[in-house]
Amino acid sequence: MDPRGAAGGRFNARLAFLLAMAMFVLVVDTSLMNVSISAVVRDLDTTVSGVQGAIALEALVSAAFILIGGKTGDLIGRKLAYILGLLGYAVGAIAMVFAQNLTAIIIFWAFIGGIGASLLLPAMQSLIHGNFEGDHQKRVYALVGASAAIAAAVGPLLGGFITTFLSWRVGFALEAVIIAVVLAGIGLVKDVPYHGDRSIDLVGALLSIVGMGGVVTGILVWQEGGGYVGLIIGIGVLGLGLLVFWLRSRKRRGKPTLLDPALFESKMFRAGASGQLLQQIALGGTMIVLPIYLQMVFEYNALQAGLSIAPLSLSMFAVALLAGRGLKRRPSSIIMWGFVLLVAGLAILVPIVPIADSGWYLTVPLIISGCGLGLLVSQLNNYTLSPITDERVSEAAGVNSAAGSFGLSFGLAFAGAIMLATLAFTFTASADGSSVLSSEQQQQVSTVLEEDAEIMTNTGLEELLVDQTPEVQEEILRINTDSRFIALQVALLVPILAGLLGIANALRMRRLPDPKPSASAEGTMLG
């Protein structure tokens, strides 16, 4: 059997299916974590902010290393990079099965798993290019893309079902089993040699890690009440600035760069990558606020949370499928309306938060936002990569993916940090103004929140207040309820602001010429 699946050869369906399985695990992994937050917090006796920080860190590591991951695959071989990426994910999944504390999740799932993703995605794309040709290659990209879309759509439901009726550990164990099946078929994969320049831009790689890592890490440190936040974020911003200077300087001297700064000379590429960044900030902020709201306020289990979030993911999947095939409007207009619908749905959610008594209240706003995300998913990738030549599309896709992953990690971290900061401020202000709490109790509340602000269920808070008088219990529970609502409403402003900036960016896109359809752009998964 011809493994390349040329036009006249047989289609290697088994290899195509295994590649789709790998992509499914890659996408469903974070969905499982999102809907399992309360279960993980309870089983490991940790905090919501700690688990949320681990989720943001995983996306950050993937973003920071994905450009380096592509170059690593060029140097060591795409097949080996693919294997190492799968093994990184397997290590993270197995660690989740046996984890006894948050440290294990951060080290193995967030860090090693994030590095695995940075190796896996670029290598997978190169291997599809090298193992299939012509119509067979298009079929594989369609299959792998469909696998990712299905995983995004059913991930919350699947993760919620497994976590509720079995355990979140079983979910990650199943991920490890799928990866083992994919690795068992590694003999079907033909390596794709790299014949380009093998020079490495180590300084550029270091600056990209310091830049993106500094910004998001600073936000996570702020969220956990740590010090030197301004310094850490400042180092990150300085790192990004130095990266731009370094790349331009290296390019002028004719030396190899981590990425070609000439990519950003295209106004369409800049606008598209900016749209990808803003879309992922909005998605990250939404997907951390909603699970916390459902699990901490309504005290939903994972399945109930997954069912409540499903309208967002399912409408996104359906609209992306339909818009990718049938809409004949200008891509920039579709992108603009995507951001408009995204913002509209989230804006409707803000006043609903304090009055809703079940997840059903969220259905219509989430469908509206999901439709907006579906329009964005159907257009942004092709819009961004369409002006790029075929020989540079893989590099451009890596940059686009890094922008998306960085946006996701920033949205997760910033929305979570804003939520906890608002909680601490409103809880303290309400406690200080209470006529029920004594001065000593007010000071105690202020001290505790200054050291460790956390979103808590009323049930969990009642257990901590068991020694207090009924009046004090009732007052603190009232303050907790009101403060949580305000904190969640303020946190929703993060994805709303990202969406508004996305609308402004889309209006700029409308002043540019429409992109031409690009077969190379359609044949990419990155971003």
TrEMBL record:
Q: PROSITE patterns from the entry?
A: MFS (PS50850)
Q: Which UniProt keywords apply?
A: Membrane, Transmembrane, Transmembrane helix, Transport
Pull one GO CC term from this UniProt entry.
plasma membrane
Q: How does it sit in the membrane?
A: Multi-pass membrane protein
* Localization, UniProt: Cell membrane
One family from Pfam that matches here is MFS_1
Question: By its UniProt entry, which Gene3D superfamilies does this protein fall under?
Answer: MFS general substrate transporter like domains, Multidrug resistance protein D
Principal location listed in the UniProt entry: membrane
**Domain Major facilitator superfamily (MFS) profile: from-to ranges:** 15-446
One GO MF term on file is:
transmembrane transporter activity
Q: Where are the transmembrane segments?
A: 12-37, 49-68, 80-99, 105-128, 140-162, 168-189, 201-222, 228-247, 277-296, 302-322, 334-353, 359-378, 399-427, 486-507
Record bears the keyword Membrane: yes
Q: Which InterPro entries match?
A: MFS (IPR011701), MFS_dom (IPR020846), MFS_trans_sf (IPR036259)
Could you tell me which PANTHER family the record lists for this protein? MAJOR FACILITATOR SUPERFAMILY MULTIDRUG TRANSPORTER MFSC
Protein name as catalogued: MFS transporter
